[in-house]
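User: Show me a protein chain along with its predicted structure.
Assistant: Here is one chain, sequence first, then C-alpha cells.
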Amino acid sequence: MEEKTETTGLGEEVDRLEAQVGQLLDTVDRLLRENRSLRAQQESLTTERANLLEKHDMVRTRVEGIITRLKSMENGA
C-alpha cells in the first residue's frame, strides 16, 4: 500500500513538472515571437529615422540657400 502511495506521489510530481515545462516552452515561444517583432519594428524605425534625417538635411540646405539669396538681394538693393 505504501509503495502505491509513493508511486502516486511521484506520478503527480512528474505531471506537475511536465506542466511547468510546457508553460516554460510556451513562454519561450512567445518571447521569441515578441523578440522577432520588436527587432523588425526597430529596423523599421531606424530606416524611418534615417529617411527623416535625410529630408531634414535637404530642407535645411534649401532654407540656407533661400536665406543666402535674400541676403544677397538685400545687399544688392
